[in-house]
Amino acid sequence: MKDIKDTLIDRRSVRRYEREAIKDEDMKLIHEAIRNTPTSYNGQQFSVIDVTDQDMKLKLYDIIGQKQIKTCSHFLLFLVDYHKISLISERLGVDMPPFNDTVDGLAVGIVDASLAMMSAVAMAESLGLGCCPIGYARTVAPEAVSSLLGLPKKTFVVCGLSIGVPRETPDLKPKQPVDLVVFKDHYRSDDEVMTDELMAYNDTVSEYNRTRSGDKTTNDWATHILGYYQEAMSYGMLRALQRRGFDPKR
Q: What's the pTM?
């Protein structure tokens, strides 16, 4: 088992896997790590669907389009889930406030599901497995994915996670320097200096993309991410959330 440094500091997204099943005892540890995720008020406003059936993985691949879905051993989907608390509130005869129709309710569920995914990543990495988060599971076709998975109202997919025995060791992607990520006591006020540092990081990413092993690109960091933002403007996530039983009004 890897130590915490190798697990977190040297983490990289792995998209190619061996045709080898993950050991049952390893998946039990991953499930236990997920179960023990810290959540807001211990409300546990999340659930996880662990997909191992190959036909189901192929159907999800056809919708989402990420090849690692069909080749991984386990494809986990992390959900915001207010369905479970709705069930028990009805059984107890206690009114369920429309918390899922608030921005805070969305944030609480998304944070819980995201923390659960990071618990899974940390445990899987510590076991020598490879992982890759897949955000397209949320955005590409929310209704098609929800229908395929049989999701009830008041649930929606936050992210997918492929896990498998790694067949590659990709180059470690450069991340922003600590000074651009962790601020002391208050937000940085030196915008000009911070912009210079961001430009330097942008150049670092460009160099990485030009020289990395495997597929090479001419992408820098900022233009690539801004392009994603532009593409994401067409996703229509508010309407998708409303169809899933979430209608944030406040």
A: 0.95
Asked if 53 contacts 60 with a C-beta cutoff of 8 angstroms, the reply is no
| Residue 129, SS3 per DSSP | coil
Sort 216 into a burial class: Cβ within 10 Å, 0-12 / 13-18 / 19+: exposed
d(CA 15, CA 161) in angstroms, rounded, equals: 10
Query: DSSP of 157-192, one letter per residue?
Result: EEEEEEEE-BS--PPPPP---HHHH--SSS----HH
Q: What is the end-to-end Cα distance of the chain in Å, rounded?
A: 45
d(CA 225, CA 166): 27
Owner of token pair 């899987």: 124
Phi, psi (degrees; rounded to nearest 5) at 146: -60, -40
Is residue 112 classed as helix, strand or coil in its secondary structure? helix
Tokens matching residue 126: 């510590």
Q: Tens digit of pLDDT per residue, the chain (250 long)?
A: 899 999 999 999 999 999 999 999 999 999 999 999 999 999 999 999 999 999 999 999 999 999 999 999 999 999 999 999 999 999 999 999 999 999 999 999 999 999 999 999 999 999 999 999 999 999 999 999 999 999 999 999 999 999 999 999 999 999 999 999 999 999 999 999 999 999 999 999 999 999 999 899 999 999 999 999 999 999 999 999 999 999 998 8
State both tokens at 219.
């992408």
How far is it, in rounded angstroms, from Cα 22 to Cα 27?
A: 7
Please say whether the beta carbons of 163 and 120 come within 8 A. Answer: yes
